[in-house]
Design goal:
Bound molecules: nicotinamide-adenine-dinucleotide, 2-amino-3-ketobutyric acid
CATH architecture of the largest domain: 3-Layer(aba) Sandwich
Strand order of the largest sheet: 3-2-1-4-5-7
Shape: globular
Distance between the termini: 48 Å
Number of domains: 2
CATH topology of the largest domain: Rossmann fold
Mean pLDDT: 95
Length: 321
């Protein structure tokens, strides 16, 4: 079997996706690559390659030398950091993808996964149940790079017949590593604040509705999409996928069911405008129809799972029930 290369393997998704791929295909088959290595996770022990996705020559040499047949290209700068460093975000998000696509074409890589985001949608898209096909018009550099990236993926598929698959992830909620510079990061930070301090200072307004997903569902969706027979894939830009959608007020109420007295305070910053430009929920019927997507975690299951995994952070006198 040709090997699997995960670029951006030390990030929020990368560390969990790499672990899941190693369980499925074996440790030595899956090469984790990143600028930096991740803190040791016994499940994710296996080869690590220091790699800059912007260095096309080295990427090319490694894909050939390591006999790579599948690439997961996760390296990117997310929405909030992207607005602080627009040119750096564009360079990493676009050139990183183009290097991956071009090396994959030159080295006959069989399959590529590249994540898009709900950030492809802008204020002109429907706010609720946002359809697969609609006017995108993103207003952030991150969203523009994801929208252009989707078109590049379709171009390489249409022109060169390459097998490239993609999901428009919503905000992802996980406990193994902290999220890196997104607008939806509050939905992770809130658990740490709830357990350690019993209050959370939120940078979004209380009624900001956004689509979200628990990491177990996101990893499973990725593996299921990559396993689907090629003739089931009808979307060659990127699939909408959905699991739950909620506001900061709603997740606060849900967490307070488990942590007595927990409350959030709201002080919106520049990330409010980013969140306001995105839909509150998306329609994932194409993913459900084409390759059988079905989420397992809603808001209450996610809150229970996160609190169970992070309960060691709770203050000794905290009442978690
Ligand atoms: P992250 O910021 O946690 O991880 C990105 C990783 O890429 C980091 O480990 C970083 O060191 C690495 N990286 C940065 N520059 C690199 C370079 N030049 N070469 C190699 N590696 C480099 O991001 P994440 O949350 O894990 O997101 C992964 C992908 O999923 C991104 O493309 C992101 O746009 C997409 N996505 C994430 C979410 C989410 O909520 N986490 C939602 C939608 C889409
Ligand atoms: C972000 O907030 O930037 C990411 C995303 C939804 O793409 N979590």
């Amino acid at each position: 079997m040709r090997r699997i290369l995960v670029i951006g393997a030390s990030g929020q998704i990368g560390c969990e996706l790499t672990a899941a791929l190693r369980i499925k295909f074996g440790n030595d088959t899956v090469i984790a690559a990143d600028l930096k290595s991740s803190p040791g996770n016994p499940k994710s022990s296996g080869p690590f390659l220091p790699l800059d996705v912007l260095d096309k020559e080295t990427l090319s040499v490694q894909v050939r030398r390591q006999q790579v047949g599948t690439i997961y290209c996760l390296a990117a700068m997310l929405s909030a950091s992207g607005e602080q460093h627009p040119h750096k975000a564009w360079q990493l998000n676009m050139q990183g993808l183009l290097n991956t696509l071009e090396v994959a074409r030159e080295e006959s890589v069989e399959k590529i996964f590249w994540p898009s985001s709900i950030a492809v949608f802008g204020p002109d898209a429907p706010k609720m149940n946002c359809p697969q096909e609609t006017k995108l018009s993103p207003t952030t550099v991150y969203g523009i790079s994801k929208s252009a990236g989707e078109d590049w993926c379709k171009y390489y598929h249409d022109r060169f017949g390459m097998d490239i698959r993609s999901l428009r992830y919503p905000g992802l909620i996980s406990y193994q590593s902290m999220p890196g510079g997104g607008t939806t990061d509050y939905a992770v930070a809130i658990f740490y604040a709830a357990l350690k301090m019993r209050f959370y200072q939120c940078y979004l307004k209380a009624d900001t509705h956004l689509p979200m997903m628990y990491m177990d569902d996101a990893v499973r969706a990725t593996l299921e999409l990559m396993d689907a027979p090629g003739d089931k894939i009808s979307v060659h830009t990127s699939y909408n996928i959905s699991a739950m959608d909620f506001t900061p007020r709603e997740i606060t109420v849900e967490i307070a069911q488990h942590i007595k007295g927990f409350e959030s305070f709201y002080n919106a910053d520049f990330r409010q405008a980013i969140a306001d430009s995105w839909p509150g929920s998306v329609d994932d019927s194409a993913a459900r129809k084409d390759w059988g997507w079905k989420p397992k975690f809603g808001l209450s299951e996610t809150v229970e799972a996160m609190l169970e995994q992070l309960k060691h952070l709770a203050r000794p006198n905290s009442a978690i029930y």
